[in-house]
Amino acid sequence: MQIKIIRPLAAHEILDALENVSDNEEDYRERLICILPPPVDPDCLTDEDSGEEDNVTLNNLPRNILLQPAEVMIRGQIMVSGTEEEPSDSTGRTKRRRTYAWRKRDLAKNPVNWPDVQGACQDKRPIEWFENFLDEDVISLLVSESNKYAVKKNLPGDITTEDMKCFIGILLVSGYSWLPRRRMYWENTPDTKNELISSAMTRDRFDFIFRHLHVNDNLDLQDKYTKVRPLVTLLNKKFLEFSPLEEHYSVDEAMIPYYGRHGCKQHIKGKPIRYGFKAWVGATRLGYVLWMEPYQGATTMCNPIYKELGLGASVVLTFCDVLISRGFDLPYHVVFDNFFTGTPLLEEITKKGLRCTGTVRENRTSSCPLITSKLLKKKERGAVDYRTTHDNTFIIAKWHDNNIFSIASNAVGINPKQSAKRFSQSEKRNIVIEEPHMVSIYNKYMGGVDRSDENISHYRIGIRVSGLSGLRVLNGGRFTKL
């Protein structure tokens, strides 16, 4: 294949262009700059180069080199000015950016008849549910690893299975019977002493297990959550085994509160829990968690085959693989927000035989010729503009509600429209507008992870790490320990 070159670029022009490229978490391409050697100066009396040969950086290149013609090489594919080729992938094949032919029509998909397939038995007592998730495998893991950790500190490793179950039970009680300090449960005062806890286990025995609670001794330096990885893996297996079999699932982020020091601690402004560990979660509409994966940046433990699609798509596709692993071969419907959605993700989910719906950012619509947000906002509330791919794979729509937002789906379209009640600020009354069907599906099933966060918040364990025992409140601009 011939490459047409309009004008060779100079080295400084390529450097300026690369510096102005915005950071893209989905772009993992390696770029190399090949600079042609400068012409020989006849007046030069030496053939030695200026500068240190072992410390050549972009900041100390001389002017005659920066002005030389140069080429950008991206994973073996030469990219010069005037080319329209995309860089090749790891297999050596040249990748091209996918372009779509758009048509102004609704998405035409056959309705899905969800089969009457039952999941796990739901008629169980609370203690039976407890034993399903924290079964002998999980308890044995905690007991064996905690005893190993105690022995390493020259202390007796005599924690038993009954001790560990009682320890976990006390933690659960602290979720609804809260006290500022854990030792208050054993105080001989009628206003704080908990007879159930104090009669089940002594204070010193609880402190011993608390200090030596351990999960993993075989550490993986590539995994920032390696100390709890076996527990996360076991719990995910139990979550999936006893999960209800439903059609719709949502994928979103959840926050686990933590105020100590750790490299994975996140701060998300505007969230109910602003400081803590972030986790990717897949859940049902009512908040049952099927799968969770702690977030640790670029090393997040998702399926590596999806790495080229970016972090958001990798999370969703990994959860789709979890659903497919159940073995029922059903057309599940996954809902997610605009952090994850993109046209490559829609195509990959379609190839897996699953359905999806999610809001999408305007710069991820693959140049879909929708009306601009400025013009759509001038129309009446409830106005919608949409386009479908020529092969009827998925639809992208833009809807005027309180604000303008875009949404995409490979399963449902605009019709049948539903009625939605909204408050009109200009008319000072409630009005009824038309809501696209895909928006109704999104609003109905997107809140599963938020529902699980709400359920957990009602009974969140009150006993924390000994170094942070007792809550710290802001008192006159200073943190004070209660």
Automatic annotation (TrEMBL):
Among InterPro entries, the record links this protein to: PGBD, PiggyBac_TE-derived
**Domain PiggyBac transposable element-derived protein residue range list:** 126-464
The source's superkingdom equals: Eukaryota
Q: What is this protein called?
A: DDE_Tnp_1_7 domain-containing protein
GO molecular-function terms, A-Z: sequence-specific DNA binding
